[in-house]
């Protein structure tokens, strides 16, 4: 699997607490895709600079989705993450993070 995806999974596994959202501050949505699944984490940056995870989710790709090229899988992860956390993100400011360079220009 992709090293960055594995690092994201490790980071999520090491998180000890989930935090309540602070709607006065912007959110960060980080997404990633691998050959078999996609994932997203919604967090905020605390006053101490720490990442404060609010929610995370992952999904196994369907056989059809596994045949997508990597750019399509990464875009699917973004779309899915936006839909998954729509309630928290709607109407507020947020930053989207992806490691896929081709999508950074969009």
Keywords:
single chain, 106 residues, alpha+beta, Ubiquitin-like (UB roll), 4-stranded mixed sheet, 3 helices, 4 strands, globular
Secondary structure class reads alpha+beta
Average per-residue pLDDT, rounded, comes to: 89
Query: Helicity, in percent?
Result: 25-40%
Total strands: the figure is: 4
The strand line-up of the biggest sheet is 3-2-1-4
Count of DSSP H/I helices: 3
CATH secondary-structure class: Alpha Beta
Q: What share of residues are in beta strands? A: 25-35%
Would you tell me which CATH topology applies? Ubiquitin-like (UB roll)
Rg, please? Answer: 14 Å
CATH level-two architecture: Roll
Question: pLDDT under 50 segments (min length 5)?
Answer: none
Sequence of secondary-structure elements: HEEEHHE
Q: How far from one another are the termini?
A: 26 Å
| Overall outline | globular
Q: Note the main sheet.
A: 4 strands, mixed
């Amino acid at each position: 699997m992709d090293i960055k995806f594995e690092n994201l999974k490790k980071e999520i596994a090491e998180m000890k607490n989930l935090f309540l959202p602070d709607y006065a501050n912007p959110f960060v949505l980080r997404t990633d895709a691998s050959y078999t699944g996609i994932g997203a984490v919604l967090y905020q940056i605390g006053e101490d600079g720490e990442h404060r995870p609010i929610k995370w989710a992952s999904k196994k790709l369907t056989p059809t989705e596994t045949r997508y090229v990597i750019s399509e899988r990464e875009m699917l992860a973004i779309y899915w993450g936006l839909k998954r956390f729509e309630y928290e993100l709607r109407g507020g400011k947020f930053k989207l993070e992806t490691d896929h360079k081709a999508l950074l220009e969009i």
